[in-house]
């Protein structure tokens, strides 16, 4: 059993938060350093560090509530635009080692001054043969997991 994370402590009510939603498996609250108005964090009660470690049950519970929270954040921000961000691992920008989805409303059109997630999207290229190799690699990994589930409920 690992030490409680910051988000465990928020979920337990030991630390304050602006909680907007909770059910048996999921809690959502405002990010303390928001990128935009209505920036939410959607967090499983299950204390998994990364998505790869999260159970299918908690992942499904998050997926079920994300559309609803996006709609509510859109109303609070006054913008239908948003980004959902989920970081896995410190090297990928994850500061809090407890799975969380950011719902980040984006106000203002692309390319104009805006409030929201700043992205630096650098498209690569994918050749046909390389695509086949990578897809095959992923299919094999999925088959292996189906035979011997690594985590979750699969
Ligand atoms: P990440 O970098 O994806 O791990 O994001 C962690 C997020 O947690 C950041 O956006 C922080 O602003 C947010 N955060 C840190 N402490 C708190 C807190 N006490 N309450 C709400 N959000 C927090």
Structure description:
With about 150 residues, the protein is α+β, with helices and mostly antiparallel strands. The protein has three helices and five strands; from the N terminus they run αβββαββα. The protein has a five-stranded antiparallel sheet, with helices on one face. A hairpin with a 3-residue loop joins β1 and β2. The protein starts with 5 loop residues before the first helix and ends in a 7-residue tail after the last helix. The mean pLDDT is about 95. The site of adenosine monophosphate has 12 residues, from loops.
Number of strand segments: 5
> DSSP strand (E) fraction?
5-15%
Structural class: alpha+beta
Question: What distance separates the N and C termini?
Answer: 22 Å
Give the fraction of residues assigned to helices: 25-40%
User: Radius of gyration in whole Å, from Cα?
Assistant: 18 Å
Q: Globular, elongated, flat, extended or rod-shaped: what is the shape?
A: globular
- Uncertain runs: none
Strand order of the largest sheet: 1-2-3-5-4
Order of helices and strands: HEEEHEEH
Can you count the helices?
3
Largest sheet: 5 strands, antiparallel
The overall average pLDDT, rounded, is 94
Small molecules bound in the structure, each named once:
adenosine monophosphate
